[in-house]
Amino acid sequence: xxxxxxxxxxxxxxxxxxxxxxxxxxxxxxxxxxxxxxxxxxxxxxxxxxxxxxxxxxxxxxxxxxxxxxxxxxxxxxxxxxxxxxxxxxxxxxxxxxxxxxxxxxxxxxxxxxxxxxxxxxxxxxxxxxxxxxxxxxxxxxxxxxxxxxxxxxxxxxxxxxxxxxxxxxxxxxxxxxxxxxxxxxxxxxxxxxxxxxxxxxxxxxxxxxxxxxxxxxxxxxxxxxxxxxxxxxxxxxxxxxxxxxxxxxxxxxxxxxxxxxxxxxxxxxxxxxxxxxxxxxxxxxxxxxxxxxxxxxxxxxxxxxxxxxxxxxxxxxxxxxxxxxxxxxxxxxxxxxxxxxxxxxxxxxxxxxxxxxxxxxxxxxxxxxxxxxxxxxxxxxxxxxxxxxxxxxxxxxxxxxxxxxxxxxxxxxxxxxxxxxxxxxxxxxxxxxxxxxxxxxxxxxxxxxxx
Length: 452
Hints:
Shape: globular
Number of domains: 1
Structural class: mainly alpha
């Protein structure tokens, strides 16, 4: 996956292309492994992007770029207006706005990928390797070796909050499912061939990520996966049924082996799955506490009161909101016992990204924030229809974006470094493929169809 892009890098003469390649590799590898490495990768990508300004014209032809520029301008003007109006939280608005503006880093990252499918696959593969390495690095080996049964029943986030790790591992699982055919073997081969090292690695990665996804014990992410998984499996089955794809014996054995592996893992974790689902089912049947002296007692209880609080705040300023990332200060100023944990600590955000956008930026901001995503989805649909990107890669981005949008219903991590890097990787890679690069502007040689 990395050999061809590396060969292209070694053949490149321009320092800008070298900076771009190093930045992409460093950012992708360090995304879930090292904050310092990811920050350095972003810096190199930004430097290469700024230095290559003479090719920016390719960006202006994309509706995604124009919609994203509108979002950036809105955040800046909105924050300046709030500061001039001297709102109660003027001093913290600048930092919050900067966190939102950092999401625009997906444009330099996508630009540095240069429209190359090979580089995109390389970046996704390196991010997967970094996520797996980070899991083993942060694993509590002492607890695992001392009491394996207890370890596998304990909620784990492997260095991240459990709900965030559920997003990252779930997206990686979608990638392994949709892009795994590249590692299974040749198509149309009728005789059986022994499993390759790459296939065995794919099977091991599938097992590790699925176990981590289950151990996150994030019921909402499980439900989101239950929605996305049938969609991508049906779409993938239809792709493989198209003429010329073929069903090699090796592929059939691989699919059978993966199904057996998944069944075994689900069976081994059946007690944990039923316990977690049972607890949440009991809590959903229990009406949320309405007494003002009661603290929020469960995740469902918390989200219910946060939803009511967020809607109340939004109705006070429906069009422009309260300002960038001031929700925690709104919660603190309200001083409501329902918005406290049992320990007495206040909840810090609304646990819903869409409600956060409405409260912070109002209906106008919400509409502007939706435009780049809609433009990106339309660009992916059109690129797939025109066969400018492989069908399996298009399916991955569709499934990953759907999973992410569903996850955003249950949490909010826009202002955190791990989410920012995840966003830059996923959205930047998709954005890179919807850009229409002229052949003379492409910073790397192109192969045949689908092998850029």
